[in-house]
Amino acid sequence: MLAHTLQLSFYFRYGCHSVWGNVAWKDRGAAIKNGDRPIAHHYVLLREEFDDWAILFNPDTGRGFGLSPTGVYVWRLLDGEHTIDEMVTALRRDALDIPENARDGVGTFVDALVAEGLAGFQSTVS
Predict the structure, then answer these.
(1) CATH architecture under which domain 21-121 falls
(2) Tens-place pLDDT, residues 79-93
(3) Is 60:49 a contact under the CB 8 Å cutoff?
(4) Where are the domains of the chain?
């Protein structure tokens, strides 16, 4: 069980837009809608440190972003199969002291990842 409270720390400044295989990415900064299933971009690298914090590295821009342990947990759920609500349910199952407004925090975190071009939302490309 994660022995820390919800803390979605990250440090962002810029973003980009991408298309990958048969997955089209919505415009950066697109608001999350109910039922959206965010997915991490395949080229972004996650490096976990000894203290459970991690760095996301975007080789396209050469920039790194710090993630708290809870941010890492949410990042691992960005597989295109989990909605924001499902991510919050998993957090409540696996972590302690998750606040009532956790959905807002997770949604804001995912929005920031999307705005930075680190994640997107799947849609069928026609």
Answers:
(1) Alpha-Beta Complex (3.90)
(2) 999 999 999 999 999
(3) no
(4) 21-121
